[in-house]
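Q: Convert this sequence to structure tokens.
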Amino acid sequence: MVSFKEEVYEHISAVYQTAVDEIKNVFGLIKEVWPLIFLLLLALTILIWFAKPAPPDKVSMATGTGGSYKILGEKYKAYFEKKGIELKLVETHGSKENLQHLIDRKDPIQAAFVQGGMIAVDNLSGVQSLGSIDYEPVWIFYRRNTFNEGIHVSDRDIAKLRINIGAVGSGTHTQALSILKQNHLNPAAPNLLSMNNSDAVNAIERGDIDAIFLVDGYDSPNVQRLIKNPNIRLVTFIRADAYTRLMPYFEELTVPMGGFDLGNNIPDHPIQLISTTTNLLIDDRLHPAIQILFLEAAKEINGAKSYFSKAGQFPVYMNTEAPLSNEAKFFYEKGTPTLMKYLPFWLAEFLERMFFLLLPFAAFSYPIIKSIPSYRINLAKKQINSIYKELDKFEQNTIQAFEPNRRGEYIEVLNEMERRVLASKAAKLATADCYSLRNNIEFIRNALEKQVIYKGRES
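A:
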């Protein structure tokens, strides 16, 4: 009776021998069909070369110094960190500088927040939009004691006040100048000041200036600070509709009576505002997966209900100054890619890349793999045909110059041919052709033997 140890040994030996045989078969197959395998490897190499690379693990983004851009940038950074991507925030002086970073093709910054109305420049090549992600109202605050109580102050009423229009080069400054020019006002008037927003907020609270332009989000610390100050009031744009028609990047917003403080009824009348939008712009070379990640971040962070927007309103392509990227078009039409809904970002992105890599490879490789059996048979037949030609030549030469005393030599040549046939792949892959060739060899061998015997008898 075979012991358990011996039985285990037999199984292990059988597994080992099977593995060795299969490995030999594989290497034999590779040796036999190596041109087809080389063609497949060449195709795969070309596909990998042209396929999109893996997304970077670090991305630089221009935001701003203070204000809503900095707050928003920190939220995006936290979102990216959860997805395993480092979002490096670069502080700038605002939208104009942010846009210049993207226009410069040598600049490492690949994404930025930019105000609507700041984008329409002559050289925008290489810059694309992922859409608008928030409202940026134009706020004009003034000191309460500047006008008599009960007067609803409009944008026309503050033209001659000491008013800060933002630091030169800032988004606030640019928007303020555009508004002044639309009203045929002198943008170089001595009553117009150019302090940065933080200094201007301090100045109006001290009473050093009468009014201040701000172009910023509702949650901006500067905006919230002035809204809550009882000595500060907010201008109403009574001609908001006209502004939106003449300056298409503006939208019309409304603060209802009591919209800031119901208990104290602040404001005590509806206020009309005009608002540009915060736009998420990118370098068009930004990896597609990172573009989708930005849009997903915008959907989660900016898509929630806010003071001026409804849930799901942002992101949206509502400012057409920069062309929408192809990835953003797909996102707005189809939504989040299916894999990203259910898998971690890195895994979803990897599987997507592999799918688009292997799909064309499979389409190319299928007919090649399918042709391997035919290729092997044709190769075997080619070997048989080669021996057939050799046999034909041998027969012709023997008939023309037959020498009876070389009978053994002739027979050995035929035997060697038959041995080569038996050792070739044709013996397994083209059995019928193989037997046919052997029969022909045998026929010539028999003919030689008869002829030799006849000659020998004759002699």
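Residues 452-459 have pLDDT under 50 and may be disordered.
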